[in-house]
Amino acid sequence: TAVAFNLLALLFLSHLMIPKSRVYTTPYFELSHYNPDTGLYAIGGNDFYFVIFFVVFFTGLRHAAMSFVLCPLARRGGISKKKEVARFSEQAWNIIHYSIFWPLGLYIWYSSPYYLNMTELWSNWPSREISGTMKFYFLTQLAFWLQQMLVVHIEKQRKDYWLTIVHHLVTIGLVAASYSYHFTRVGNLTLIIMDVVDVIFPLAKCAKYLGYRRLCDGLFGGFVVIWLATRHVFFLMVIYSVYCDTRRLVPHACFQGSMANLQGPLPQPRGWSLLEPFYSPQGMICANRSIFIGFFAFLVALQGLMVIWSYAILKVAARVLSGKNAEDIRSDDEDEATELEGKDPAEFESFDYWGRTVYEPKPKAEPKAPLVKKGEVKEGEQVAQADNGGANGWEGLHRHSNAVSSGLYLPGQSEHKELLNRIDAPRRWAD
């Protein structure tokens, strides 16, 4: 949080107090490549600075929200374990994010010509200008997923660590490519298909951590239905459209220039021209077989990840139907074997905690203090009393007689005596 705050504060102060720097700092705060004639925005290299700003902003905001709002909220809800508090705050942050950006994406789709019309996803390509809302939506989504790559390496590794890494890389690639190649319509539809379950799933997890078992199971049941419908029905419809509709609706040619002076179709050049859409708003942009094969391969890879996670989710659903708790096999809890790695299993005992096996160290048996008859004093203590004399000797005898008068042994008594002896040691040394 401190690093993010300092970077943003330095940027804001430079922007406000050094007018000459504003030509460099403005792209961090405002959308670039605006066309006043059309009221729309082109795509260009300055978008990179806007993305970097929101990566830092999301990182600082996430940490601040978790530390000062969500973790205290978890403790007020009765969650005491440190790991449970951290997990609750992570899921609550996801609820906040997706509750903002999924409705925003849904609004863009609902107010667009491609609402419930798959063929409109590819019409008027290449439309080199988009609305400010669409541009903000895509750049902040790209920033969010880049920031998620940082989060994966900050948090403790989970069981599906490598699957998560692959998922984030594929998602970042799809968002960046669909934005740069002006396939924002299909990118918007794909994001809202994916994001809807990311609102429900964290709600189920938070209900679980708070101890609301029935609410958790109910939300999880709704999550399973929506997951299967969106990830394996609607998303497959998008993949089918990419495979079939692009062949007949998108011109396989190249174009160059701004929207007001678009030139094409042009022959496809060789070399690095396919990268021009990523940095030049008026550069060469092409649609060919290789481009669509790349998009199709990324989408199929994403569907493959969904199949793996769906298998784990269905296993959890089978547990719920059999009367057990909904346990997240997919990503939340670390592998139980790692908790005992390098340790002697005989020194730990396990018990069930809301459907998970939790390990706690076994209490160690403390040696019982030898019983001393009333009035009997050991030889070593006689010497100590003789050396201390006076009040100190009386205090030592008084402590000893109290310790043995009951004849009972209390767990942790030896540690308590050791602590008192350490505290009293400097005074005895001084005497």
TrEMBL record:
Lineage top rank: taxon: Eukaryota
Signal sequence range: 1-23
InterPro entries: Lag1/Lac1-like (IPR016439), TLC-dom (IPR006634)
Localization annotation: Membrane
Transmembrane segments: 49-74, 95-116, 136-154, 161-181, 219-243, 291-314
PROSITE patterns in the cross-refs: TLC
Membrane topology: Multi-pass membrane protein
GO cellular component: a single term: membrane
MF-aspect GO terms: sphingosine N-acyltransferase activity
Domain TLC: 83-322
Annotated region (Disordered), positions in chain: 365-397
Keywords, sorted A to Z: Membrane, Signal, Transmembrane, Transmembrane helix
Basic and acidic residues bias: start-end ranges: 365-381
GO annotation, biological process: ceramide biosynthetic process
Keyword Calcium among UniProt keywords: no
Family under the similarity heading: Belongs to the sphingosine N-acyltransferase family.
PANTHER family membership: LD18904P, LONGEVITY ASSURANCE FACTOR 1 LAG1
Annotated protein name in UniProt: TLC domain-containing protein
